[in-house]
Amino acid sequence: MQFGLTTEQQLLVDSVRAFVEVELAPYEDEVERTDKVRPELIRQIKDRALRAGFYAANMPEELGGGGLDHVALALMERELGRTGFALQYAVARPSNILRACKGEQIERYLKPAIRGERVECLALTEPNAGSDLRSMQTRAERQGDVYVINGTKHFISYADVADFIVLFAASGVEETAKGNKKRITSFLVDKGAPGLDVRLGPRSVSHRGFHHCELVFSNCPVPVSQILGEEHRGFDVANTWLGATRLTVAAQCVGRAQRALEKATQWAATRKQFGQTIGKFQGTSFKLADMATEIAAADLLVLQAAWKSDQGTVQDQDYAMAKLYATEMLARVTDHAVQIFGGMGLMEEVGVERLWRDARVERIWDGTSEIQRHIISRALLRPHES
Ligand SMILES: Cc1cc2nc3c(=O)[nH]c(=O)nc-3n(C[C@H](O)[C@H](O)[C@H](O)COP(=O)(O)OP(=O)(O)OC[C@H]3O[C@@H](n4cnc5c(N)ncnc54)[C@H](O)[C@@H]3O)c2cc1C
Predict the structure, then answer these.
(1) Which of 56, 77, 251, 252 has its CB 3.0 to 4.6 Å from that of 65, i.e. a possible disulfide?
(2) Distance, CA of 39 to CA of 97 (rounded, Å)
(3) Mean pLDDT calculated for residue range 175-182
């Protein structure tokens, strides 16, 4: 068992941290204030991320990506997590699901995404189908060589700035031992497709400057050549390529929690009340100790799941445990940080309330904490079920 980082891994951590400090962090206040990232700033960050080799670090080298393994990617995400989602978007790692592209799709979607020329968004969730994705109502009806899409997706991150959509829609029904089940197909849909309307969604408290959208499909034609993966096997594509996304969320939570701990420690070491620094009160110092311990535990879960991914032994519950623990840990750590700052913790200038607000969404997106618990408990109980 080897817990230390290699020289290359340490170099990666140091260089991504420096990149975040120099290229992203100085713009955090502007993004918070204006709730947007200027297009020219996105271009600047993207260009520098491409030059540094951070862009598309998750994609295979032979296609122009960084070819990083899961452990290296987790380390990178941990550092990127120190800042908010809106700025990180400019250092994008195209979704792994694009690896399912084949033939002409590779030239039209995958390679331009790796070069930073085209950006994707991922559309699964609907107003009536969140955790229960199989109940999605967006329909794809085949008419010859074209599927006609009707329905509404919501909460779709980055759809305002994306160039194309990885869309999941119900493409029929299959009979199974447990009754009829919807068949789901995944499609690549260009943003300008006829019959597609993209509307900005309501403002969220987490991650200012990053937006989500509602997508309305009204008789939107999509050629069968735009199917991603196999027809009717959309969930197979998602299960193959999206599991590691939970690890990305978890790794970023570790980075953000480390930042909250650093700020809280510094404050506790200098803020005086009753004639001594508040860090000398056990009520504060024990909080710091708990925060540090929980962050270290989450970090280990993340790196263990990443390591197992690289060994080819990872199971869904490994990702679920890392996501569940790291996101819940971040909520506790950022809440303690606000408490240690007292009233100042609620002031925007300090930046701790931002970490606390940003933490809230992590327990919801990419599968809520309750859904992660289902995944973990199902894996525990399955061998005992007849
Ligand atoms: C800012 C933001 C960005 C997002 N970006 C995207 C995106 O880019 N693409 C995309 O497709 N989706 C996106 N989502 C959607 C996100 O993945 C869903 O919000 C999430 O899966 C939960 O679905 P829901 O909000 O409909 O909640 P619901 O599924 O309605 O759940 C409500 C509550 O019920 C609980 N619950 C539901 N079922 C069970 C159960 N079986 N057992 C126990 N508890 C249960 C949940 O845990 C939750 O606490 C985004 C969401 C947000 C908030």
Answers:
(1) 56
(2) 26
(3) 89
